[in-house]
TrEMBL record:
Transmembrane segments: none annotated. This is Retinol dehydrogenase. GO terms for molecular function: all-trans-retinol dehydrogenase (NAD+) activity; all-trans-retinol dehydrogenase (NADP+) activity; estradiol 17-beta-dehydrogenase [NAD(P)+] activity. It comes from Cyprinus carpio carpio. It catalyses: all-trans-retinol + NADP(+) = all-trans-retinal + NADPH + H(+). It comes from the Eukaryota. Belongs to the short-chain dehydrogenases/reductases (SDR) family. InterPro entries: 17beta_DH, NAD(P)-bd_dom_sf, Sc_DH/Rdtase_CS, SDR_fam.
Length: 293
């Protein structure tokens, strides 16, 4: 994300919790580091850290805020502690709220600004065994949908970026780890469904539909550069029918039973379908580039 924006004429302030780990980012930024790219320390889970970071910006003047911090959580909910659940919400929901609260007053005063929030397709459609992560994204979608109305009165734009599967080292490592873990508190059948059914289906979907971080950064850049940016921005057009299916049935039964059948009754068929889709679809179809204009 930072690399994508640092090569433009924009002055970029990138943040990270531990500046001792900045080497890879600095290397990717190249000559822009120290010129159009500045690096600051920030922990979105800390009120004090957020305040200090924004205070270090002259006049608190931020034209575009990109909320990109996030953590994942996967597995049977019976085996997940309440502290782990709170940690997800602390970053994914309250972290974003902290940042918006800190920059919003100046944007409203200037009657100018654009807030970008990295959400997920899971903020629109629940996904089995992603219960807590999905809940955190649903929360941020509701918060932003409410805020967008007020901010519009002050000429401040708010946009949600909603990726589906994204290929990252984090996702790959997490899939490998969860497959080996024990899940105390969850019954044997649930653990078997999670490991033998869900994880395999998830891997198939990632391989067939997954985008790269660069794809998401390019989509985000197009939203920022748009004269009339959308509020919601699905980055992968193949997920549009899934979202449409949910809103086509006000009872919610259609999407619930469809996903149930795909996972538990037609798992083999879905595996074959994803394999065919991976072979047939070229990258230009699997990676949607948003056209905001």
């Amino acid at each position: 994300m930072t690399k994508c924006f640092s090569v433009t004429c924009l002055e970029v302030i990138a943040t990270m919790r531990d500046l001792r780990k900045k080497h890879q980012l600095v290397e990717a930024a190249g000559d822009t580091y120290g010129k159009t790219l500045t690096l600051l320390s920030l922990d979105v889970c800390s009120d004090d850290s957020v305040r200090k970071c924004i205070d270090s910006v002259k006049d608190h003047h931020i034209d575009i805020l990109i909320n990109n911090a996030g953590v994942g959580l996967l597995g049977p909910v019976e085996s997940i502690s309440m502290d782990e659940m709170k940690r997800v919400f602390e970053t994914n929901f309250f972290g974003t709220v902290r940042m918006i609260k800190e920059v919003m007053p100046d944007m409203k005063r200037r009657q100018s600004g654009h807030i970008i929030v990295m959400s997920s397709v899971m903020g629109l459609q629940g996904v089995v065994f992603n219960d807590v992560y999905t809940a955190s994204k649903f929360a941020i979608e509701g918060f932003c949908e409410s805020m967008a109305v007020q901010l519009l009165k002050f000429n401040v734009k708010l946009s949600l970026i909603e990726p589906g599967p994204v290929h990252t080292e984090f996702e790959t490592k997490m899939m490998e780890e969860v497959a080996k873990m024990e899940y105390p508190g969850a019954d044997a059948d649930t653990v078997r469904y999670f490991k033998d059914v869900y994880i395999q289906s998830s891997i198939d979907i990632f391989e067939a539909l997954g985008q790269t971080p660069e794809d998401i950064a390019k989509c985000t850049k197009k939203v920022i550069e748009s004269s009339r940016p959308r509020f919601r921005n699905l980055t992968n057009s193949l997920y549009t029918p899934i979202v449409a299916m949910k809103y086509a049935d006000e009872t919610g039964g259609l999407s619930v039973h469809t996903f149930y059948n795909l996972l538990f009754n037609f798992g083999s068929l879905m595996h074959i379908t994803m394999s065919i889709l991976k072979c047939l679809t070229c990258s230009c179809l699997r990676r949607r580039t948003i056209s905001p204009d």
